[in-house]
């Protein structure tokens, strides 16, 4: 089995990304052949400053390595380092019906949220199909919001095979990563860089402290009993605790006597215990280690991609 997944370098890594994406992908390492792609071409649809994109790409590599991605167990690489992605996207675009793209919900969502309605954003799923099909990836671990894109990749592979010959491209299946409930941000909505409600995993201490101390609470006093299931502070804290610790903490909330100020200080302490080793690694990683990891990943990725491209360009008549 070959697993491919991707993430856009389009913002600062936060706790939602860690528990909803990074952790699962690091845990999957070594299980199968793993390809983890930083989708920098896709990020061009929303990041429109060269300096910003450069910074997000670099920091995502650092973040992954700090979170335990071992470049000897999987391939971490930039999409733009493998030219076949853009080339295959064009070829696939020529078998993709307009109607298929018009049904994509993410395009409508993004335009509604204010993203520029450019052709890149509209054909985003075709490039994503190329990302997957170029590696004959059969499994794609993603969050629920990406399932439609993977199904589209599968439809596009079938169209291609119908036109040019069966079994040329492998139809992928989405593997919805362990159903992680959406992690709430400090205001209780889904934590997202677009909502300004994040706790940045690798942010400076003061920034993390400000975010955690700013988590929205109700107006219950110190002595009041509190329902842990209603508390954002508890929901975030529980992510970093085992079952017994969660129960202990829930009892403290229910018994009264624990004020929100102290509950947040406890969360802050847990945060630094939990992420301390990763934050240290993050600070210690050298630029050369980042470069070495992505070069190694790209070399492996290019080897697979070139075999698929050979097959594809021969089938369509470009050689
Ligand atoms: P953002 O919502 O901040 O823009 P992205 O869409 O770039 O984040 O998400 C990158 C990955 O992190 C995706 O796989 C997504 O499913 C996961 N993710 C992002 N926010 C959350 C969250 N609040 N809870 C769980 N997973 C999340
Ligand atoms: N569209 C995905 C996201 O926004 C990122 C992505 C790009 C991707 N190419 C991919 C995910 C290929 C899985 C497979 O999260």
Q: What's this model, at a glance?
A:
The chain contains 14 helices and five strands. The chain is mainly α.
Can you walk me through this structure?
The chain has 319 residues and is mostly helical. The chain has two domains: 2-182 and 286-316, Rossmann fold (3-Layer(aba) Sandwich); 203-282, Tyrosyl-Transfer RNA Synthetase. 55% of the residues lie in helices and 8% in strands. It contains 14 helices and five strands. It has helices at residues 15-28, 40-43, 50-66, 84-93, 98-102, 105-112, 119-122, 124-133, 147-164, 205-213, 232-238, 243-255, 260-284, 287-316; strands at residues 2-7, 33-38, 75-78, 139-142, 173-176. It has a three-stranded parallel β-sheet with strand order 1-2-3. It has a two-stranded parallel sheet with strand order 4-5. Helix 10 packs antiparallel against helix 13 (260-284). The longest helix has 30 residues, at 287-316. The radius of gyration is 22 Å and the shape is elongated. The mean pLDDT is 95. The structure holds adenosine-5'-diphosphate and tryptophan (TRP). Adenosine-5'-diphosphate binds at residues 7-8, 10-11, 16-17, 20-21, 143, 180, 182-183, 190-194.
Per-chain topology:
Layout: E1 2-7, H1 15-28, E2 33-38, H2 40-43, H3 50-66, E3 75-78, H4 84-93, H5 98-102, H6 105-112, H7 119-122, H8 124-133, E4 139-142, H9 147-164, E5 173-176, H10 205-213, H11 232-238, H12 243-255, H13 260-284, H14 287-316
The protein binds adenosine-5'-diphosphate (ADP) and tryptophan (TRP).
Tryptophan is lined by residues 4-8, 39, 42, 128, 131-132, 140, 142, 146, 149.
Protein traits:
2 domains; Tyrosyl-Transfer RNA Synthetase; 319 residues; mainly alpha; single chain; 5 strands; three-stranded parallel sheet; binds tryptophan; two-stranded parallel sheet; binds adenosine-5'-diphosphate; Rossmann fold
């Amino acid at each position: 089995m070959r697993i491919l997944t991707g993430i856009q370098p389009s913002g600062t890594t936060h706790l939602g990304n860690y528990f909803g994406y990074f952790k699962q992908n690091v845990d999957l390492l070594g299980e199968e052949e793993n390809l983890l792609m930083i989708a920098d071409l896709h990020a061009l649809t929303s990041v429109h400053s060269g300096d910003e994109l450069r910074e997000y790409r670099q920091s995502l590599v650092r973040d992954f390595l700090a979170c335990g991605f071992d470049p000897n167990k999987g391939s971490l690489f930039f999409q733009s380092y493998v030219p076949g992605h853009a080339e295959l996207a064009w070829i696939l675009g020529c078998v993709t019906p307009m109607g298929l793209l018009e049904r994509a919900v993410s395009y409508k969502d993004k335009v509604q949220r204010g993203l520029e309605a450019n052709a890149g954003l509209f054909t985003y799923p075709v490039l994503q199909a190329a990302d997957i099909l170029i590696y004959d990836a059969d499994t794609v671990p993603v969050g629920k919001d990406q399932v439609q894109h993977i199904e589209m990749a599968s439809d596009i592979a079938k169209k291609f095979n119908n036109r040019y010959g069966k079994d040329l491209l492998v139809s992928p299946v989405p593997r919805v990563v362990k159903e992680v409930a959406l992690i709430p941000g400090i205001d209780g909505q889904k934590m997202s860089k677009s909502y300004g409600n994040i706790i940045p995993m690798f942010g400076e201490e003061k920034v993390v402290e400000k975010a955690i101390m700013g988590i929205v609470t109700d107006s219950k006093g110190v002595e009041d009993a509190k329902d842990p299931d209603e508390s954002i502070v508890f929901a975030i804290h529980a992510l970093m605790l085992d079952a017994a610790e969660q129960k202990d903490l829930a009892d403290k909330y229910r018994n009264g006597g624990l004020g929100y100020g102290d509950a947040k200080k406890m969360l802050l302490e847990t945060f630094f215990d939990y992420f301390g080793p990763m934050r240290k690694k993050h600070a210690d990683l050298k630029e050369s280690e980042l470069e070495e990891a992505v070069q190694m990943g790209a070399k492996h990725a290019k080897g697979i991609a070139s075999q698929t491209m050979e097959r594809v360009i021969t089938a369509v008549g470009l050689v």
